[in-house]
Every structure is written in structure tokens, then in C-alpha cells.
Amino acid sequence: MRALADDGYDVRRIGRTEDVTWQDAAGIARAVDGSAMLVNLSGKSVNCRYTTANRNEILRSRIDTTRALREAVEGADEPPAVWFNASTATIYRHAMDRPNSEADGEFGDGFSVDVARNWERQFFAGDLPGTRRVALRMAIVLGDGPATNALITLARLGLGGPQIDGPWFPHRRYRGIGPSPTGSASAGWHRTRGFQKFSWIHIDDVVGAIRFLRDREDISGPVNLASPNPSDNRTLMRLLRDLEGMPVGLPAWRWMLEPAMWVLRTEPELVLKSRWVLPGTLTAAGFAFEHPELLGALDELTAH
Predict the structure, then answer these.
(1) Total domain count, the chain
(2) CATH number, domain with residue 91
(3) How far is CA 234 from CA 144, 148, 211, in A?
(4) According to the 3-state scheme, what is the secondary structure of 237-272?
């Protein structure tokens, strides 16, 4: 949001610790009415264990906040011209055979996909004739955050080898959720050998894409926010090792990841799912990525 303030916007914030909270419907309505642009990035982090309580909160926090904003936009005398709502490129299936764009992407199934589908369904519900809606299907964002910092730390400690999927004891953490759950009740696995695709985007390009899409009144609907040059897990970890000057990186098989992720209170799916996504809409519209190559993006981050 600092970037919007730098652009001259008077930024009004809604959140658990802000002046306007998600329980304050009247405050939300006042904040939305007369605004030039609405950007919603709310939702519980998926960097957690998918317990029943966390699963429900991940879904609820996205659906309820999006619904509250939609109701505020519907009732506004001066609704925002454009509304950007966070979504996720995880909506697409585990893909090793071909990439997914907005035009020909195939949705997956199971918990993470169901969260994304229900989130977008709530976002695009109803008729908002005065407001253009854009769902930001973000790939993994590289920036000064916990996910990026964790990968850099692994590489620095000599633990930055590929993460390799494999069999594990049956569990139900990835089962579907919502009104129409999809997928199997029991989690499966994929023989990727560490070559699962890694679709990503630098945080600077997330900000740049929002600015670009703000000015492109002809673009609405879902938009993939991902670099045009996806990589894979092995390459990602090798580049991080090189940048950190670490000649070795121990690989981690699923039987190693499961207990380690349990200790860290997060999920192996975050590194094992093959996310192969292309920014079809942005590319066709002529968006110029500031960090189109993974090496350059990682070099910029590790230099800080």
C-alpha cells in the first residue's frame, strides 16, 4: 500500500488492527464510497498447517471480507471505478505437461483450489455496473516475506537442494472445502523428482501490474500475475545456492519434508505442487516486467 500512497492516493485501510475493522459495516461503506480504486489483499496466510480450524479460517477470511466489500460497493453512491481482489494461481491444476493461461487454464481440485474458486465466485457475484473487477491470480510472490526468506535460509545453510515428492501416509488435510468440495478425501502425490514447475513474480511486478491494469479500462476478469519465464524447483534451489555461495544443497524427499513441515507448522504442498502459469493477459496487453528472469529477481532480493 506504500506504493499507492507514493502515487498520491489517500489510502484508507480496513483490517483487524486498522481504524476501520471488518466488523464495522458502516465504516467499510464510508471507506469505499467515493474511492477511486479498491484493492483487497485480505485473508489468513496459507503458510500454516491445514488443521480443520485453519482450513475453515482460510476460506472464511477470504469469503467474508470479499462479501463485505461487495456489499459496500453495491450500496455506494460513488463506487470505485476499479476493484482489484487477490486470488491465487493455485486455482490451476498440478501441471507438468503444459502451462496454464487465463484463456486455456484447467482448474485443479482439492482444498487450495476450492478456496480459490469460492473466493472468485464471491468476488464476481452480483451486478456492479460502475465498477470494473479484476481478480489477481498471483503466483508465488518473491519479496521480503517469510516464504522467500525461508528458501534463502535453506540455501545458506546447505539445505537448499530440490524438494522431491513421494508416497506418504494417508491424510485428509487437502480434502475439498466449501459448498461443493472437489477432489479425493485422501491426499495423493506426483512423481516430479524435483522438477515441479515454479511460477513466480517479483513484488515490484505485482505493484507494476496493478498500476498497469488500473489504467487499462478494457481489462477485467481473472488476470494471472506471474513471470513469463517460469522455472522449476531444482533450478530455483540451485540459483539460490549459487547466489549464497553454497556449493552443496541436500535434497529433501517427502518423507523428510512431512515431519519438518509439521515442526515448522506449514504444509509440503507449498513447495511440492507443480505450478505452471503464464501471464497471457498481461503479455497480450504489452505489460513490461521489471524482473522477467528468475536469476535477476533472486539476485535483487539476496543483495539486500
Answers:
(1) 1
(2) 3.40.50.720
(3) 22, 15, 33
(4) HHHHHHHHCCCCCCCEEHHHHHHHHHHHCCCCHHHH
C-alpha 119/C-alpha 235 separation (Å) is 32
Please, is 104 exposed, middle or buried when counting C-beta atoms within 10 Å of its C-beta (0-12, 13-18, 19+)? exposed
What is the widest separation between alpha-carbon atoms in the chain? 61
Q: What confidence tens digit (pLDDT) does each residue in 136-190 have?
A: 999 999 998 777 887 888 888 888 899 999 999 999 999 999 999 999 988 889 9
* C-alpha R_g of the chain: 20
Q: Please classify residue 48 by burial: count the beta carbons closer than 10 Å to its beta carbon, then call 0-12 exposed, 13-18 middle and 19+ buried.
A: middle
pLDDT value, residue 152: 85
Please tell me the distance from the alpha carbon of residue 117 to that of residue 108, in angstroms, as a whole number.
10
In 3D, which of 243, 213, 227 has the Cα closest to residue 291?
A: 227
Give the pLDDT of residue 304.
61
Q: In terms of C-beta density within 10 A (0-12 exposed, 13-18 middle, 19 or more buried), how is residue 147 classed?
A: middle
Q: Which domain holds residue 63?
A: 2-302
Cβ contacts of 200 within 8 Å, gap of 6 or more: 139, 140, 141, 142, 226, 227, 230, 231, 294, 297
Closest Cα partner for 147 from 57, 58, 48?
A: 48
Residues 6 or more apart whose CB falls under 8 angstroms from that of 227 comprise 139, 199, 200, 201, 202, 205, 279, 289, 291, 292, 293, 294, 297
Section 2-9 average pLDDT: 88
Cα distance between residue 36 and residue 79, in whole Å: 8
Provide the β-strand partners of residue 163: 252
